[in-house]
Amino acid sequence: MATPPSVPFDNPFEESSRTNKTPEACILVIFGATGDLTARKLIPALYNLAREGLLPAHFACVGFARREKSHEQFRQEMLEAVNSFSRSKPADPNLWKTFSQKLFYHQSEFHDDAGYESLNHFLHQLDIQMGTKGNRVYYLSTQPSFFSLIVEKLSRHQLIYPVNQREEKWSHVIIEKPFGRDLQTSQELQQSLISHLDESQIFRIDHYLGKETVQNLLVFRFSNPIFESIWNSNHIDNIQITVSEEIGIGSRGRFWEEAGMLRDIVQNHMMQLLSLVAMEPPPNLQADSIRSEKVKVLQALHPLAMDQMDQIAIRGQYGPGYITGDPVKGYRQEENVNPESTVETYAALKVLIDNWRWVGVPFYLRAGKRLPKRATEISIIFKKAPGYLFEELNSVVEQNVMTIRIQPDEGISLKMNCKVPSLNTIVQPVKMDFKYGSHFGSPPPEAYERLICDCMSDDSTLFARDDEVEASWRFLTPLIHYWESVKPKDFPNYPAGSWGPEAADALLLRDKRQWRLH
Amino acid sequence: MSNSNLSQLKTFAQSESNPTQLKACLFNLIVYTHEPRRTEYFKKVVDLFKDQFPCRIFFIVADPDRSESNLDVEVLSTPLKSNTAFSCDHMIIKAAGQAISEVPFLILPFFVPDLPIYLLWGQDPTTENAILPHLLLYATRLIFDSECSKNLVRFSHEMLKTLASTSIPMIDMNWARISGWREVLAQTFDIHERVEQLSTASSIVIVYNDYPNPLFFHPETQAIYFQSWLACRLGWKFLKLSKEEGFNLFYETQEGQVHIRLLPEPHQEFSSEGLLRLEITGKNDYHCILRRSSDQQVIVQASNQYQCELPLSLVLPSIDSGRMFMQEMFYQKMSEHYSQMLALISQIK
After folding, report:
1. CATH of the domain at A93
2. pTM value?
3. Quick one: B121 and B237 in the same domain?
4. Cα–Cα dist A175/A62, whole Å
5. Which of A9, A129, A439 sits opposite B191 (nearest CB)?
């Protein structure tokens, strides 16, 4: 039965300013569906969207992978995945019964043309059966080396459509980071994608942008003028962004040997956090307005000077140590890691932004594996008050610090100074604290729920644009190449369970500062 | 007020500054009722949402028919189910006779400053009440429940007047209760052709659950709301109402007339008063059924003389766990659709 073509119209039953956006009918095809991401994140996200009534009524999901599997086997595996990894579990039997009927599996190799032909045929049948109108989302949950191949095959077999057919049917492609290994490879990847797709059809996922706490950065900054008025070099001394993990590289040795911390975390997650903290208010909440402001920050980053690289960029690699009392091995002892590897598991940078708002304010970024605790946070350290008032009382007046905790213990705290109740005037720092957990009882949606829903709704606000990606690679590529060409002599240079190499502390000490978490 | 009540309030006031207790509070919520059967119902509602939206609750149970004056206060601090490290405050005030007029002054010092004050008025807001105007002075949002109104037409009239004269957002719980079905309808009739088929319907049967429940008294209200909303959205003009074997409403459509019939059916397994089924019949043998298959699912089947669509299943967000209901109650702006629906109901004689 033919499904009526979709014509944009004003649904009389929706109130645009009030109703949750429900995505349009579509089929989501996940390439690499037997991988970890699908089981841990993607299918649980879809299930939770269904549970909240946010999945389109006409929807199907097709897993595309090499292994032989029936639809039923795939559905059973995904049920186990939901029961293990979903934020709401176990799966509701009634809901699962209906939801699982929307899951299908298609076996093929990524390079096999016959596989794409049969996929096309299968998807057309699903359009008729499920009413999905020909709309497609292709999620490339694969090694980056397959991106170009898959997109080329999709194009060749007319599985992706020209953007001028948008009114009739649309197709989007979601790719996961890393988007290339450096500036050149990212540009090559972009060229390869653009030869088959319009930029508006490409959705580059950085799952950090799907986190509630990261989205809150915009709301926090731009709905609270009290903070926006002091969010500049007149009042801020420095900003520190930390992405700390206590876990090691686990079973990702092979991947990590090719990637390293700069590529895995700094180029994407940290640059996103930096741009959200430093951006100007956008003129409106349209996707491109927000993304354009972020790009301006990245384009204003002061280039890393080659003759100062060792002073402003610190790298490290963890050696054996202790995490929460348990001994752990060093990076070079991990599986699939070269025993003489010089890949970094820690990176710290001092970054400057050349614009009126941030001139003279250093941004200290650090990311590391096997640090003492898991913490992703942004600390805004304000300038000291003129100290003359309380100096004579031998009181130390500390700098105000606002900390935005991205994960865990999500929330925002403000450190300020108060008088200790006593007959003397003693100044004591105290903290005002807002915690997500105490204010909003039920767990928030997972990042992938938001991101998949947005892609299906054609909202690219939370996805990286090509110029964003290029700007961050342009900034970091000289450092990447420098580190590749000049091998470190002191690896490993920090024990697991410590806050990283001493040189990272020296990075701030030189500026008479110190890391907030140390 | 007795000495023990006074000391409870003092303890409550002191606990504000207790550094060892972690309080969770997004807003202040005043709940008012003066019927015992409504009290149980609102206790259930409060339990439902306070874990998702922790708040400081002032639960006022009044007894205006008692001649002797009495005021009784109990103060509790209840931990959140999701995280027992945090708790929210619960003040239960029972007032009778003249003491009812003291209540607004009693609760005034205990509002958490800077946070919104929501008033959940559990009685018919169109009837005279001494305390409502005082509580309205504090409120930043008014939530009422048309369930408590005996005369829906009169209620609609009065509400429209109040909506026109007040600037604070006003939310009707019955409107929030049908948000799931409104969403289901929007998803079912999501293209022009389907809306066309619906707008030229000649007959619609809406079946609602009238399984006896001591907490619900007007099982037809949600059905009346739903069909009025549907009629408004499709631009139908109300013609007449008759009450033979259920409610029968007639509207003028672009194609002629549509007969909407509201039928009760008792179903213990579904939530009380909820809609159970919509059966739509139109030209070219168009037939569409939206049938509730479980508390959280609706099955849609549609066909006409040329084609028969495969059944489709849609999620009906549960009121018990649903964010949609809560968001409608506490966060959504006033709905244009709601006021248009009220305007239509107010025409029904």
Report:
1. 3.40.50.720
2. 0.82
3. no
4. 16
5. A9
User: Domain of B259?
Assistant: 177-345
Instruction: Examine the domain organization and report whether B307 and B181 are in the same domain.
Output: yes
Distance spanning both ends of chain B, measured CA to CA: 47
- Rounded Cα gap, residues B135 and B33, in angstroms: 13
Chain B, 295 to 334: residues with Cβ < 8 Å from chain A are: 296-297, 300, 307-310, 312-317, 322-324, 332-333
Indicate the burial class of A444 (C-beta count within 10 angstroms; 0-12, 13-18, 19 or more).
Answer: middle
On the question of pLDDT at B86 being above 70, the answer is yes
Tokens linked to A313: 């960029």
Is B132 contained in some domain?
Answer: yes
**What confidence tens digit (pLDDT) does each residue in B306-322 have?**
888 878 888 887 665 55
Name the phi and psi angles at A322, rounded to 5.
-130, 135
ω into A408 cis (within 30 of 0): yes
Q: Judge residue A421's burial from the number of C-beta atoms within 10 Å of its C-beta, 0-12 exposed, 13-18 middle, 19 or more buried.
A: exposed
State ipTM: 0.78
Which range marks the domain in which residue A214 is found? 209-384+466-509
If you average pLDDT over residues B210-216, what whole number do you get? 80
d(CA B19, CA B190): 53
Compute the nearest-CA separation of B183 from chain A (Å). 8
Q: What DSSP letter does each residue of A390-413 carry, written as one string? A: HHTTT---PPPEEEEEEESS-EEE
Taking an 8 Å cut-off on Cβ atoms, the answer to whether B333 and A18 are in contact is yes
Active site members of A: 269
* A357 plus A500 within the same structural domain: yes
DSSP per position, A335-364: TT--TT----SEEEEEE-B-STTTTT--EE
Q: Which residue of A has its CA nearest to B81?
A: A441
**Sole residue written with tokens 């890691």:** A337
Do B68 and B205 belong to one domain? no
What CATH number does the domain containing B203 carry? Answer: 3.30.360.10
What are the tens digits of pLDDT across the range B52-71?
788 899 999 998 888 888 88
Q: What share of chain A is helix, strand, coil (3-state, %, to 5)?
A: 40, 20, 40
Alpha-carbon distances, residue A426 vs A398, A400, A431 (angstroms) = 12, 17, 16
B268 inside domain: yes
Peptide bond into A492 cis (omega under 30): yes
